[in-house]
Amino acid sequence: MSAGAPSEAQIRTALTAVRDRIAQAAARVGRQADEITLVGVAKRKSAEAAAAAVRCGLRDIGENYVQEATAKIPAANALLAATKHAAPRWHFIGQLQRNKAGAVARDFDVIQTVDRTRLGDALARHAEGRAERLAITLQVNLSDEPQKGGVAPDSLPELLAASRAWRSLRVTGLMAIPAAAADPEASRPAFAQLRSLRDALRAEPGGEDLHELSMGMSQDFEVAIEEGATIVRVGAAIFGAR
């Protein structure tokens, strides 16, 4: 797919290919494809491209940048409403500053990158007026990379304990972005580690709803599925290069 704006036909073809790869990866480890949520990452792509993906059957769209998403989400939703298509679930998957918590709590359905108590406190305040609790995942920095968000694995139980005070939020699982690697297999240990952390935390107070594992992107989502991913975040393989 070219680096320009993808056509709806290109998106449809790409989605079919990605879904086939998801199904094959799931089958290799005795899982069902419908256990995995595909989030199409539309950062730096237009509202028209996001809406086209939804028309092609994608139900979850991810965005990384608050300012970009603030304009794109209502525009995409309006395009979909005009053709009588339901809006997708919008996932925020970028690093989040506390001063943007209000906009994110207003515009998104899932926040995948909560990594500190003060951010959770801010989101919880802004989510108090929502009809339903705002779904979040706790981001873990498995590779100790300072440029990435995420709580250190050793501090994760403390963050989970703090989350019990967030009455307007619902902690559904964990999210991670492993260190970049050319070989997808290099990410397997990190994916396995995140699964182990999630499984251990399920027995902790506040861990009862920890079902999700958001891990795996275009280059390594098949390995992530083999290691238990329930959410994969795929951008270039659907929308083309940015």
Task: Give a structural overview.
The protein has an 8-stranded parallel β-sheet. The chain contains 9 helices and 8 strands. Helix content is 40%, strand content 17%. The chain has helices spanning 8-28, 47-55, 66-82, 101-107, 117-126, 156-163, 188-201, 221-226, 236-239; strands at residues 37-41, 60-63, 89-92, 110-114, 134-140, 169-176, 212-214, 231-234. Helix 4 crosses helix 5 (117-126). The longest helix is centred in the first third of the chain and has 21 residues, at 8-28. It starts with 7 loop residues before the first helix and ends with a helix. Strand 6 (169-176), helix 7 and strand 7 form a beta-alpha-beta unit. The protein has one domain (8-36, 93-239): TIM Barrel, CATH 3.20.20.10. The protein is of the alpha/beta class and 242 residues long.
